[in-house]
Design goal:
The chain is mainly alpha-helical and about 290 residues long. Among the domains are: about 60 residues, no CATH class; about 90 residues. The chain contains 13 helices and no strands. Helix 4 packs antiparallel against helix 5. The longest helix has 20 residues. It is globular, with a radius of gyration of 19 Å.
């Protein structure tokens, strides 16, 4: 439905002599959402396709912030693909550029911190996190048109991102502490995906810290949340948890959890299509 809405909005916006920038901007927002939905459905090529389309539509509408945010989303896709260099390169192009607003630049700095953490670069990661905190504090209290970029489930995701980085930097105990704090605002039904994703990450940190019993308990809760959302990113993190549990000392409940996680898989039957858009990531029609 999101893909069809993008196509319709784009056609109407470009039907007249002069493009309707308001409709193009709405189409760009919807394309970004379609990219996110494709990502969570496990369709990486389609996610990249729609995220790129969001950037193109944002550029045509003159909406710099969404254009910058599309680069941050591209960096996120690179992060889940394990390409740290691409994450840092994309994000530095955003958070060093004054044309983008503080919220978008804060998100870019957070992703850059994660990219540096993937490479084990603790000082650079901490500097990026500090930069993100400063930028986040500098954003306006409200968006003038109510079209907020990025997730609003947990507000400022600084604690979650810091905890995410701490695990990659070899500080599992700190990762657990920060992730637990960051997940407190995500206790509503709307926060299930966040609880699944970051809960699984925290469970991995508990395994690394030798707290196997607590890791299994938290892993079970994360698995239940994942079963309600079918989030591909959460499922990927749960499979990493299963791999960590398999390498831990033999533990009956942990083995049971590993089997339950292996049974879970992201849906593959759902497809995102619009015009000529396909799972292979073919460009959106128009």
């Amino acid at each position: 439905m999101a893909a069809e809405q993008v196509r319709t909005l784009k056609e109407i916006a470009l039907a007249g002599r002069n493009p309707d920038r308001v409709l193009l901007r709405l189409a760009a927002h919807t394309a970004e959402f379609a990219g996110w939905m494709a990502q969570e459905g496990g369709l990486e090529a389609a996610a990249r396709c729609w995220t790129a389309e969001a950037g193109r539509l944002a550029a045509r509408s003159g909406f710099d912030d969404l254009r910058g945010y599309s680069l941050v989303r591209r960096a996120e896709l690179e992060m889940y693909a394990g390409r740290a260099d691409a994450v840092i390169e994309l994000c530095e192009a955003v958070y060093h550029h004054q044309r983008y607003g503080p919220r978008v630049r804060a998100f870019a700095a957070q992703r850059a911190a994660q990219g540096h953490a993937m490479r084990g670069e603790e000082p650079a990661s901490l500097r990026a996190l500090d930069r993100a905190r400063t930028l986040w504090a500098a954003q306006p209290d409200e968006e003038p048109d109510g079209l907020l970029l990025g997730s609003a489930t947990v507000g400022d995701p600084a604690q979650l991102v810091s905890g995410w980085c701490s695990l990659d930097l070899g500080r599992p105990r700190k990762a657990v502490e920060l992730l637990h704090i960051g997940l407190r605002p995500a206790r509503t039904a709307q926060g299930r995906r966040m609880r699944a994703l970051f809960g699984a990450r925290a469970a991995r940190a508990l395994v690394a810290d030798g707290e196997l019993h607590e890791a299994v308990q938290l892993g079970r809760r994360s698995l239940r949340s994942a079963e309600m959302t079918w989030s591909a990113t959460a499922t990927t993190e749960l499979h990493l948890l299963a791999r960590a549990l398999e390498q831990a000392p033999r533990h009956g409940p942990a083995t049971e959890l590993v089997h339950a996680i292996r049974f879970l898989s992201a849906p593959s039957a759902h497809r995102v299509r619009a015009g000529r858009t396909t799972d292979s990531g073919e460009e959106p029609a128009g």
